[in-house]
Amino acid sequence: MPGLGNRSNGSNTISFHINGKHHEVPLVGTYSASTSLNDYIRNEAGLTGTKVMCREAGCGCCAVSVTTADHAGNGHTTQSINSCLCPLASADGWQITTVEGLGGEKEGYHPIQKRIADFNGTQCGYCTPGIVMAMYGLLHEKSRPTEQEVEDNFDGNICRCTGYRSILDAMKSFAADTSIEGGGVIDIEDLNKKLCPRTGEPCTDDHSAANGADICGLHVQIGGSQWFRPTSLTELGGVMRNAKDKKMRLLFGNTSTGIFKNEGPFDVYIDIREVKDLYEIKETETSVKFGANTSLSTFIKKLKELKDSQPGFHYFPALVKHLKLVGNVLMRNAASIAGNLMIKHNHHDFPSDVFATTEALGAKVEIYDSKDGSRQTYTVQDFVRRVNMKGKVLVSLELPALDTLDTFRSYKVTPRSQNAHAYVNAAFKLKISSGRQILGKPSIVIGGISKTFFHAEKTEDFLRGKEIKDAVVKEALALLQGELKPSADPVLAPPQYRRDLAVNLLYKTLLGITAPSDAKMASGSSDIERPLSSGIQTWQDKKDEWPLKQALPKKTAKLQASGEAEYVNDIPKYKQELCGALVLTSVASATIESIDPAPALAIPGVEQYITWSDIPEGGINNAYARYTTWPLPAEEVFCEGQVEYAGQAVGMILAENQDLADEAAKKVVIKYKDVKKPILTFEDAIEAKSTHSCFVGPATIGNPDEAIAQSDHQIEGEVRIGQQYHFYMETICSLCVPGEEGMEVYITTQAGDVIQIGVSGILNKPQNYVNVHVPRLGGSFGGKFFTSSHIALATAVASYATGKPVRTSTSLSNTMKTAGKRPHLLAKYKVGCTREGKINGIIMDVYMDNGKSNSMQFAVAEFTTQMDQGYHCPNWRITPTIIKTNKAPSAPVRGPGTTPCSAMIETILEHVANAVKKHPILVKEINLYEKDQKDITGQVLRYCTMRQVWDKLKTEAEVPRRMDEIEAYNRANTWKKRGITMAAVKYGMMLMDHGMPLLLSVYAGDGTVTVVQGGVEMGQGLYMKVAQAVAHGLGIPVDMVKVRPNLSYVVPNSSITGGSTTSERAVYAALEACKTLREKMDPIKAKLPPDADWQTLVKASLKAKIDLAAKSTPFAEGAAGAAAGDHHAYFTYCAAVAETNLDVLTGEYGIDRVDIMFDCGESLNPMIDIGQIEGGFVCGLGFNLLEDIVYDKDTGAVLNDGTWEYKPPTTKDIPIDWRIHLLPDAPNPVGIRSSKATGEPSTGLSAAAMLSLKRSVEEASKDLTGSSTFVPVDIPFTLDKIQQNVGIKLEHLKM
C-alpha cells in the first residue's frame, strides 16, 4: 500500500516527544486502541501533573499542548487539547508539552505558573495544571491576546473551588489590554514558543520537518486492532477498500467518545489527521469550501478572517458567535467539521450546531466513495438522512455566499452558559425585501426536538412570500407549534419547554427583522450578552500581626501550578500493584440471585474478583465498622444480597491497570430476583410510609399557631430542592499497601480517623495495624467522608486478600452512581405577618430524603437550629421527617443544612413581600436580627453584626438607586426583565468534639520548622494559615515553615475536617504549640544577647537539652470563648445583593452584579478567605440554578452520571461584576485570634441570584397576564422552570 509500508514492516512502534524527551513506544501486547495519551503520560511517562477526571473532554484538568504539522497553513501549530480522549496512537510524530515541561521548583516556575499562584487562582489545585496548559496553548496561538479572548479561552476548564474570578484575573493579566495590577504580556523567550515536533528542541527557521515532510503513513497493530494513518485521500481509499468487510472507525480528534462511550472496539482504526487533501480551504465569489479535516477552532478563525472578503459573507460573524458555543476550546482544537457532522449522521438525536447552522444556510457537503473514487455533493440534511457512509468519507463543507437581502439568525439555548449541549438549537435564513416581505422559501432548522425533526417544513411553506406583520406571525407561530412534537427524555428539558422555546426563537427572529409597533416588545429580539467580567475585593489589613492575618497566596500554590503537588493517585505504582474497580448494581430494589464474574476473569490481565466473603473472619462488613464517635448507621461495603440502591457495590474486580479493571467490572453478570419498582420521590415514600427514624423531634418556640392566626396575613407555600453532587475534581482514590507490621492506607478522605477505625474493623485487626496517609485532596466539599470509607475499606479487603498493593481510583460515572449527594428536600410552610411584612410566626414541615441509609440525619438538627439565618421570628414550629428511598445514602455538601435553610427562609421572606406588595429588600430588612436578640435556639446574639453588614452593604452597593432604575427598566420592557434582591446569612459555627492534634518540630541545624496536624488540606488554605500562625508564634519567616501531610501515627484521633472550622482550630493548635515551645526556650533566650537571631536561639536550646518539639491537641471547649450552654460557638454574618437580567422568551439570564459584605472578624488570611467566599457562592449558584440528579424511574439508576448531562457552573456562570468586602472593624470576641470561618456561609447567599430571577419571572407574568401570583420555588431554578413559570401564550407574541 503506497506510503504505508515503511512503518508497517518496522518494529510496530510509534514515537513522539514529551517535554523535549523522545519516547519510542512499542505497541504489541502493551496497549489497546482505547489507550489514551493521558494514560501514557501519567502511567508510563510518570508525568502525573497532567490530571484525569471525567474522560469526556468535559472538565479540562487533563489539558496538554501539542505541536503538530499545520496542514491548513504553513509550518506547525501549537494548541492545547484534552489528553483524556486523544488516542495514544494518534500522537505519533507529535511534540507534547505537559505542565512539568513549563517549569517547576528546581528549574524555576513558568510565568503562567507564577501568576496563577500569586493571584490565589488555585485552591485544591487539581484543576490548576489544566488551566495553566490551556493558557499556554492560547499564548502560543496569540502572544498578545485581549482580555476578552482570554476569558473566552476557559470554557472547558471546570473548577469547583475558586469561583473562577481569581483564575480569570490571573490569566487576563497576560492580556495586551489588561489594567490588572501585577499583569503584563509574556516575553516570547519565556513562553518557549518554538518547539520542533520532530526533535523536541527549540526550532530553527527551517520548519521542513514541521510542515509534514517527514510524516509518512503509519500501519501498526495495537491491542488486536489495526491502526492506519494514511497521508492522502488515495491511500485512505485503499485502506477502506481493504477493510470493507471489517468493523472500521475513522477518527480525527476522537472527541465523540466523550459522549458515546460504548461504541467499539473496532477491527480497524483509521486516523485521517494526516490526509492533506482534507485540509484545503478554497474561497470563490460564491462560496467558501472548507476541508473536512478543518478543526472547529480553525473553522472559526477562518470565518473571522473571511467575513469582509466578499459581500455574501456578511453572516460569518453570526455563525462564529454560534460556533464558539460548540463544546469548548480544548475540544474545538481537536475536533473537526467532519467529526461533528458524522456524529449527527450516526446519531440523529444529537443536537449538532454545525448541522443546524450550515443546513439553514444551504451549505453542501462533498462525499468521497472509496469503492470507485467518485465524489458526490449533497445538502447537509440529505447527507445526514439519506447517505450510507459505509466506505465513504466526507471531504468538504461548502458555505454559500448569501444575497445582501438574506438575514441569518441562530440560537443555542443550553443548560448553562457554555460547554453544554443545546436544549434547543435553531437557525433561520430569510430573504427580506425592503417592504418586510419574505422572498422565496425561508429556511428554519431546529434541533433538540426529536431525532426525526430537522426542518419546520410547514412553517417554511406558509411564510413563503408573506409580509411580516402581526397576523402572519401569529399564524406562523401557531403552525410551528403544531408541527413540533418534542420527544420525552428524563435528562432533557421537558417537551413543553422545548416546543415553546423553538416557537419563541422564531418570534425573536421575526421581531428582530422588523421594528415592532410596541416599543416594549423591542427587547425580545436581542440575546443576553455577557460583557467582560470584573471583580473588586476589599479588606482591612492588620499589619501588627503579620505574617498572621496577612493576605498571602498558599505556600503550595506554585507546586500545584507546576503539577508537582502529589495527590493519592499520583503516588508511583508499587511492584505487583493491582487496580480495583467496584462492581455496581444496576437496579435499586431487588435481591441478588447470582453473580458470575467469569466473563470478567476471562479477560487477559484480570486477576481476581473480591466480595464480602473475602472479609477476614471476625471482620465487619460495615463502612463505619467500630466507629462510635458519631451515630452512623451500618452500611455494607459489599452487598450481601439485598439491593437497596442502584450503584451499590457487590464486589471488586482486580486487574493490571485501572482502565482494564473498569472495563472488566462491567462484564460481571448480576442476576436479580424480586425486583421492585424503586421508591424515588417524596410522594412515593410518603404513600409507602417509608421513613427513617429521626433523633430530632419537632422544635417549637413560642406559640406559632396563635401568632399566625392573629396576623394580618397568613401565607402558605412550599419549597422543593433537588440533589447536588459535590463534583470534586479528584474522584475517590484509595491505595492500600500491605507490610510486615500492618497496612498503609493512602486515601482521599476528610476523616482519616474514621478510615483507620473502619479498616481495622473490617479486617478484624487492632487499630495500630493501620496507618492512614492523607496527602491532600483535590476538592471535597463534604463528599470525601462517607463515600471514602466505602472505597477505602473495599480496597483494604482486596489488598489483604491478595497480599498485594491495591489501588482503586473511581471513574466519574461510578463515583456519581455510588456516592451520596446533597439530599432532596421538601419544605411546606405557613407564615403569619403584619401588614408591613414583619413576621409573627412560622410553621414548617421539612421532609429530607436520606436515601437508603440514615447517615445524614445530623443535618436535620441544622433545620431546627439554623432555619432562621439572618432573620428574627419569635414563634416557630419545625417538624422534620426523614424519608427513606432507594438511592445512595445522602451526604453532606458545602453547607449541608444551612444552604437549603437559606433558600427556604429567603423564599418565605420573598413570599411575604409578595403578599404585602412591597419589595423583598424592604421586607427583609425589617426582619433582620438585632444585637442581643435570641435566635431560634434561644442563644443570645451578643455580638450580632447582621444589621451593620446589611446597612453597609446596601450603601456600598447603592441599592436604592439600582432598585429605582430596575423598576423603570422593567416598565419599559416586556421581554427583558431585570431583578434585584438581597439575602442575609447568620451561620452558626460548631466546633467538633474531637481534638485537633498538632506536632511542631524545630530542626536545630538551621532552625526550620515542620508541622504535622490533624486537619486535611483540600483547598481551604489550611496549611498556609497554620504556617502563618507558626511563623507569627515563633517570630520567624513563613518560608521557614513546612506543613506536612496528615499521618495517623503522628497525629492520632484527629477530628473530621469539615464544618468550615478546621483551619481556625488548627491555627489555635499551632499557636498553643508555639506557646509551649517558647515557654521552654524563653529561659535560654534570656541568657543570649538581645540581638540573637532564631537560629542562634535554636542551637542554644538544643545545647541546653531543650526538646525542640511541641504538641498541642486543643478540644472544642478550649478553642473559643463562647458562653456555656450556647448551641453555637459564634456566628458568621454576611449579606449579598444580586442583580440579574432575564430573557423572558427563553429563560436565559445573566447575573449582572453581585455585592457581598462578609463579617469574618479579623481574617487570618484575607486572600484565602475571599477565595473561600467566592468558591462557596458559585457552588451555591450551581445548587440554586443548575444542578440536579436524574434517576431512571424504573431502575433507580443515575442517568446524568457525567459531564455531558451534569452541569456545575463554569467561568461564564459567575457574576459579571463581583464585589466582595470584608467588614472592617469587626473583631470576633470569641474567635481564634478574633477571626471567623468562611468556607460555607457564602453558599447560602447565592439564593439571592435565584430569587432575583424568580422576581423577574413574576414581573413578566404580571405584565402578560395581570397576575401577581407568587411563583413557588423549585430548586434548581433551571431555564425551563424560569421560562415556563412566566406563562407565555401565543397571543402574547405581538409584533
Most strands sheet: 8 strands, mixed
- Cα-based radius of gyration, to the nearest Å: 31 Å
| DSSP summary, beta strand count | 44
Amount of helix: 25-40%
What are the SSEs and their pairings?
Layout: H1 5-8, E1 13-18, E2 21-26, H2 37-44, E3 63-69, E4 76-82, E5 95-97, H3 111-118, H4 128-141, H5 147-152, H6 165-172, H7 188-191, H8 209-213, E6 218-222, E7 225-229, H9 233-242, E8 248-251, E9 268-271, E10 281-283, E11 287-291, H10 296-306, H11 316-323, H12 329-334, H13 337-346, H14 353-361, E12 364-369, E13 375-379, H15 380-386, E14 392-400, E15 406-413, E16 424-431, E17 443-447, H16 457-463, H17 470-483, H18 495-513, E18 534-538, H19 557-561, E19 578-584, E20 590-596, H20 598-601, E21 606-610, E22 642-643, E23 649-655, H21 658-665, E24 669-673, H22 682-688, E25 691-692, E26 699-701, H23 704-709, E27 713-721, E28 733-738, E29 743-747, H24 752-763, E30 770-774, H25 786-802, E31 806-809, H26 812-818, E32 825-833, E33 839-849, H27 858-865, E34 876-883, H28 898-916, H29 920-925, H30 946-956, H31 959-972, E35 976-989, E36 998-1002, E37 1009-1013, H32 1022-1034, E38 1041-1044, E39 1046-1047, H33 1062-1087, H34 1094-1103, E40 1109-1112, H35 1116-1119, E41 1130-1143, E42 1149-1159, H36 1166-1186, E43 1217-1222, H37 1241-1245, ...
Helix pairs in contact: 3-6, 10-11, 16-17, 17-18, 24-25, 32-33
